[in-house]
Structures
1.
Amino acid sequence: MATRAQIYREILREYDALRTRKAAELRERKESLYERFPRLAEIEEELSLLGISAARTALGSPEGIERAVQELKGRQHKLAAERLEIFEAAGISPRVLEMEYDCEKCHDTGYIEESPCVCLKRRVMDRLYDQSNVRDVIRLENFDTFDLRLFSGEAVPEEGASPKENAQRNLKTAMAFAEDFTGGNLLLYGGTGRGKTFLCNCIAKDVLERGKNVLYLTAGQMFKQLEEMRFGQSEDEERTEWDEELLDVDLLIIDDLGTEFSTVFTASELFRIINDRKLRKKPVVISTNLEIPALMDQYSDRVMSRLIGEYTVMKFFGEDMRMKKKYQK
Ligand SMILES: [Zn+2]
């Protein structure tokens, strides 16, 4: 998983490679053109020599300089006109001798003076989409495709509502969360296939489209990475960057909490992440298949008091939608 700093470095290397390729293409274009029209090569040579001879003359008297400049300009004009004639006669645009850029605004550097160009922002955005791990899935799973008809309208007495009413409520909460996005947190819980992951994907897409960055990890992936960072061979810099990403990304979605093998390490890391992000006012969405008491067993009281006290808890119940869809096909 690349951090934001790594993404930037990678993209700037791509710009470098792009400019190198464009320069090579220009050289090739010139070479083949000069082969067809040797006079064009001579003109280019003469033009570059003119500059040198002008500099030499300029060492003379003031009147001499003035005259030399006039002569130089005249000669340059003549050569340029001759070149244009050759191009026109051959029906070729003089632009073949110019550098081509993918982005005319920043000349493929990614920056216009100090500020990032639109093309750089787009590349970063693109990478963040990839990075969020949800690029493909959110095409299918988003607020537009959330289908309330899949949920049963039959009331579940012990829940005091039907799965459809419940899903409607959860959908509303999720939409409000994505729109408002001012530091609230969500805890989604309920059995497998009740729509939690689907709703997480909806939130991810909506938030990404608002130009925020999202990191979507299963708890298993997240703890594995943290363990590698802590106990593996990774460099300090890499570790700090990854940590910063986890703590500072606009929205962190931790899917499937509770399925990982939990240890003292995972419990304390979870607390650290939740706590640190809370201090930074950065939202977290957590989904879990476990009921609250089972989560309490697995994690420390301090984790759970945070989760229950400061997260909007959303329950998911009803039929297993994955099974339902499978058998409907
Ligand atoms: Zn640009």
Note: Residues 103, 105-106, 117, 119 surround zinc ion (CB under 6 Å).
2.
Amino acid sequence: MTVKRIALLGSTGSIGRSTLAVVAAYPQLFRVVAMAVSSYSDRLLTQIRQFGPEAVAVRDAAGASHLMNQLGDRPIRVLTGDEGVAALAAWPAADLVVSAITGFAGLWPTLQAVRAGKAIALANKECLVAGGQLFMDEVRHHGVSLIPVDSEHNAIFQVLDRQQAVQQLILTASGGPFLGWNKDQLSRVTVEQALRHPTWSMGAKITIDSASLMNKGLEVIEAHWLFGVAAEKIAVVVHPESVVHSMVEYQDGSILAQLGVPDMRTPIAVALAWPERVTQPLCRLDLIQMSRLTFMAPDRATFPCLDLAYQALQTGGVAATVLNAANEVAVSAFLAGKITLATIADIISATLESVPNAASDSFEAVFQADRLARDAAQCCVNHWSK
Ligand SMILES: NC(=O)c1ccc[n+]([C@@H]2O[C@H](COP(=O)([O-])OP(=O)(O)OC[C@H]3O[C@@H](n4cnc5c(N)ncnc54)[C@H](OP(=O)(O)O)[C@@H]3O)[C@@H](O)[C@H]2O)c1
């Protein structure tokens, strides 16, 4: 395998750092040529010193200028603003772009990478939740490969070989830190409790989504667009050990699963190396030590975000864009201590009712729906603030 040159969007985040760990483990296979982040941090400077990219984009202008001062004479291009992040996503020297910016903000730069013909390792699920058909049309039009990094979709990607014979996709969910809790208990959880995920170590936004089960809802929508499977044929089972990452059930009754430790370095290594495989594992699952795997139905009444996502997918148009935007606003408000965890679903539900649905026939329509939904959700936050 020749050295793959990587542009890493979101290098300082949880997926970004796991990606750099994979690159560091296989220097003969991968090289990081470009990195993008939101703001300056010492962590970014350390990453630049270790991986020596040609270009870095820091969205925040003051952060970019601080970085330039820190870099002195180092021959590194520093870009800034949303345009800088988008230009970095299409960086000419990169073969593969790892899309690991969090939230809707990841859509525009990832789209630029697709339009520049780069292979995409996709962690940012919001590209598909908010951009859906339009994003997939661009992927097909530009003939780029799209390899899912999200562990569930990476698992399905590895075991799905005959689409026509699929009975259902089965996404596994850890259940998050509040598995088995009731609505009353949920209304009193603290931000600190919600950020303590039992099996996965992830960024704050996705950790809260995992606690509300919205993460699984977003993943149902993501799976629909990635694999072309209808909502009715995508099931969710709770699997607290987080070892079976997802499954495909075929019409003949066979169920194929992909297993591994709950560590994002494995799906990232799969995505970076695809269609090859790396020859040394970064983490190995000990089945004997695991000994027991459990599966149960999700509690849809206590965690209504899951059904809200199914409903948005079935409604179509920009409903999933609205759902995603309302969720981002509500999660920020929860992290800021303004609303309870249980209020997140109320805000999403109210936003879906108040923003008129429209055809999702252009990126302008998607960006407009995102803006309207953010405004509406912010009004709900103000109304429901503690
Ligand atoms: N974490 C996981 O295990 C996991 C698993 C599956 C899927 N995902 C998905 O992967 C994505 C990233 O998740 P994460 O947990 O890694 O998030 P995270 O830890 O919050 O990291 C986000 C990264 O994106 C950068 N960023 C944010 N907004 C940006 C912008 N507008 N322009 C440029 N850079 C920006 C941040 O830079 P700063 O550091 O400067 O803020 C940071 O490097 C999400 O879509 C998530 O759903 C994550």
Note: The pocket of NAP is lined by residues 10-16, 36-39, 41, 59, 85, 100-102, 105-106, 123-126, 150, 200, 202-203, 205-206, 264 (CB under 6 Å).
